[in-house]
Write a structure and sequence with these properties.
The protein is α/β, with parallel strands linked by helices. The protein folds into three domains: 330 residues, TIM Barrel (Alpha-Beta Barrel); 197 residues, Rossmann fold; 124 residues, Immunoglobulins (Immunoglobulin-like, Sandwich), CATH 2.60.40. Helices cover 33% and strands 17% of the residues. The strands form seven sheets. It has a six-stranded parallel sheet with strand order 2-3-4-5-6-9. The relative contact order is 0.10. It binds beta-D-glucopyranose. Beta-D-glucopyranose binds next to loops.
Length: 766
């Protein structure tokens, strides 16, 4: 009786929950899409369905000649679902015409590209963007990238890359948002929003693809494509978070990673691709392999091409990038009963759905308006935004004696292998950049300094003494303009320039291709030739400012000790030189904070702030204690902690104040802190909130970032920053991978980086 009484209410509730989950308009749209695709799929042959799963590289298609290529034949036969690495709206239009006018079912193609940190207007490398801690800037950069790429024919980008990276030997650290799940998750969401916008059908938004799912950044020894092996506890609590965040933000596609997960390559890992991604997280888009990801499973040692192609499909992969394993083998596997029609249909449907959502069935030329590039690509307005966002990403690592900002007037010696180089400014993965237009430091400094300042340039050193290394570090047109003179002669010229100047600016560090794919490094220091140059410059006694180019955490302990000022600029993008000059002259006050820990030496790697405590932690403030967890030859401390970065001004933090110290259930806790600009310049500060769960049923990290806010303060100004914390922020995956929080003590920490925090303790009961 009692139960029956509640039944109508329960039903009503269920109906209203369903309505919330899928608003009426959305479900009508979903039904319309389903009907459209059902009808289309009924007409498709098996070969045509498999064609949708095929994503070949474009090869060398020349405008006006597309029709004569091998790809054209496949497109006409309906054996291609999309193309990637084809650039230029006219060319893309021509290829799309082959699909929608000359193939039997006229299904449009989707055109993908690695639009990673901007299109022709290039923003800082993702690691740099993440150091801005400015989600609006990150989102805006993705929005501009989408606008430019879509204007040039692209409808799909292989971004964001959200792999947690704790090992700077791995060159691809440059492409992601660093070591922290929470920061990485916020950035993943901002980028998906930026690319896909509110309306995927709008012609200036594009489909986003989160990658590389999963754990790609955890390769053994930091060697690219290497094996990963980790507990599910760590996966769920640390590495999965940003992928899941992208899924929650509605990302339309996911890219499988090259590495294995739990002994099975991600591309064939059903647990990863179906159980976690689709069933647990509710992902409804499509999954593409990475470049020849299916074929590479032959070398992984799990079977021949038919076997690995079938395993990929069974795992939940929908599209095969480049390798053509699916399109060439799945028909036979179907006959042999190794895969099912339902599996092929499901994959085909997901690709068609993405095309539908992009509006390509309504108008296959939606992204092919040849008049757009002239007005929408590399515009003055976009470049202005890129310049300002780049300057926000710079991290001031040291500024002894306030040597920076530089004063205008007088003479500046500008030296270093990266001082007069355009090609390396955009950084890795800038496939649509016009290197010739990128702004070098020399150009930027000259223009921004104005006529009253003299800039004396000398190269000072090559990137590296070893010409072969320099070749490997200067691929894809990122020429380093090797100077063939003997090293001492090149240095002598720079020393002479320094002697004439009031201050020396040395543009040193990594070249763009020392990071990115297949660019792992076993040494993270400055190259010896550059160290020699810096020493010789120091001997002149002139004030020396290092402008450091880096695509990873570097080990620069020696330089951090020896030289007074270091401005880390990552790879700032197409407007590099202007943004660097803006920061050097103080027109922009640096406000970036590191999103990775910088170790003292490579032996400390992997070093990350949110580590566990061990049963034998070092006592606070200690360097070494026998039978404690430490090294004999280096302290446990990083050179620069996660979240670190200076400003031309200084900030003072009050002690944080909690709204309560004893809490129960779903109460909310507010913790506030007053931050005052105590220096002479207006500046921005990233106020960071960390939490430690003091006692757990499993061990918990010593601290975890749970919130941050970037504020701007005038000299003398104070602002109160308030963080609201709820039990939601305390949840983690326990030993049974149940996501919940546990009652007990929590340390709440607030500060300007992960090391220098002020702490208070609260007790939270269920
Ligand atoms: C990379 C991906 C990239 C793809 C397509 C692969 O080698 O791992 O990040 O999206 O190539 O260019």
């Amino acid at each position: 009786m009692q139960k029956l009484k509640w039944l109508p209410l329960v039903l009503l509730l269920a109906i209203s929950i369903a309505a919330v989950a899928q608003p009426a308009g959305q479900s009508a749209e979903a039904a319309k899409m389903k009907a459209f695709i059902d009808k289309l799929m009924k007409q498709m042959t098996l070969e045509e369905k498999l064609g949708q799963l095929n994503l070949p590289g474009a090869g060398d298609i020349t405008t006006g000649q597309a029709a004569n290529t091998d790809i054209a034949r496949k497109i006409r036969e309906g054996r291609v679902g999309g193309l990637f690495n084809i650039k230029g709206v006219e060319k893309i239009r021509e290829v799309q015409r082959l699909a929608v006018e000359q193939s039997r079912l006229k299904i449009p193609l989707i055109f993908g590209m690695d639009v990673i940190h901007g299109y022709q207007t290039v923003f800082p490398i993702p690691l740099g963007l993440s150091a801005s801690w400015d989600m609006k800037a990150v989102e805006r950069s993705a929005q501009i990238a989408a606008q430019e790429a879509s204007a040039d024919g692209i409808s799909w980008t292989f971004s964001p890359m959200v792999d947690i990276a704790r090992d700077p030997r791995w060159g691809r650290m440059a492409e992601g948002s660093g070591e922290d799940p929470y920061l990485g998750g916020q950035i993943a969401k901002a980028m998906v929003r930026g690319y896909q916008g509110k309306d995927l059908k709008a012609n200036n938004t594009i489909l986003s693809c989160v990658k590389h799912y999963a754990l790609y950044g955890a390769a053994e020894a930091g060697r690219d494509y290497g094996t990963t092996d980790m507990s599910r506890h760590r996966m769920y609590n640390e590495y999965f978070y940003p992928y899941k965040a992208a899924v929650e933000a509605g990302v339309g596609s996911v890219m499988a990673s090259f590495n294995e997960v739990d002994g099975v390559p991600a591309t064939a890992n059903k647990w990863l691709m179906t159980d976690v991604l689709r069933k647990q997280w509710g992902f409804g888009g499509f999954v593409v392999t990475d470049y020849t990801g299916i074929n590479e499973m032959i070398d992984h040692g799990i079977g021949d091409l038919p076997t690995v192609s079938a395993r990929a499909l069974q795992a939940g992969i929908d599209m095969d990038m480049v390798g053509e394993g699916m399109v060439t083998t799945l028909a036979k596997s179907l006959k042999e009963g190794k895969v099912t029609v339902a599996q092929i249909d499901a994959a085909c449907r997901r690709i068609l759905e993405a095309k539908y959502k992009l509006g390509l069935f309504e108008d296959p030329y939606r992204y092919c308006d040849v008049t757009r590039p002239a007005n929408e690509v590399y515009t003055a307005a976009h470049r202005k935004e890129a310049r300002s966002i780049a300057a926000q990403s710079f991290v001031l690592l040291k500024n002894e004696g306030n040597i920076l900002p530089l004063k205008r007037g007088g003479k500046i010696a500008l030296v270093g292998p990266l001082a007069d180089n355009r090609e390396n400014m955009p950084g890795t993965w800038a496939v649509a950049a016009d290197f010739a237009k990128a702004v070098s430091v020399l150009q930027g400094l000259k223009e921004v300094a104005g006529s009253g300042t003299e800039i004396i340039y000398a190269k000072g050193s090559n990137l590296d003494e070893d010409a072969k290394f320099e070749e490997r570090a200067g691929m894809f047109g990122k020429d380093l303009r090797r100077d063939s003179r003997p090293a001492d002669q090149i240095i002598a010229e720079a020393v002479a320039a320094a002697r004439q100047a009031d201050v020396v600016v040395a543009a040193v560090g990594e070249s763009a291709e020392m990071t990115g794919e297949s660019s792992s490094m076993s040494h993270l220091e400055l190259r010896p030739a550059q160290k020699e140059l810096l020493k010789a410059l120091k001997a002149t006694g002139k004030p020396l400012v290092i402008v450091l180019f880096a695509g990873r955490s570097m080990t620069i302990a020696e330089e951090a000790k020896a030289y007074p000022a270091i401005l880390n600029v990552w790879f700032p993008g197409s407007e590099a030189g202007y943004a660097i000059a803006d920061a050097l002259f103080g027109d922009v006050n640096p406000s970036g904070k590191l999103s990775t820990t910088w170790p003292q030496n490579v032996g400390q790697v992997p070093l990350f702030y949110n580590h566990k405590n061990t049963g034998r932690p070092l006592a606070e403030g200690q360097w070494f204690q026998k039978f404690r967890s430490n090294y004999l030859d280096v302290s446990n401390e990083p050179l620069y902690p996660f979240g670190y970065g200076l400003s031309y001004t200084s900030f003072a933090y009050s002690a944080p104040v909690a709204s309560a110290t004893k809490l129960t259930g779903n109460q909310a806790l507010t913790v506030s802190v007053n931050v005052t600009n105590t220096g002479k310049y207006a500046g921005k500060e990233v106020v960071q909130l960390y939490i430690r769960d003091v006692v757990g049923s499993t061990t918990r990290p010593v601290k975890e970032l749970k919130g941050f806010e970037k504020i701007e303060l005038q000299p003398g100004e104070t602002k109160t920053v308030k963080f609201q914390i709820t039990p939601e922020d305390l949840k983690f995956y326990n030993y049974d991978l149940k996501y919940d929080w546990e009652a007990g003590d929590f340390d709440i920490m607030i500060g300007g980086n992960s090391r220098d925090v002020q702490k208070l303790r609260v007790n939270w009961q269920k």
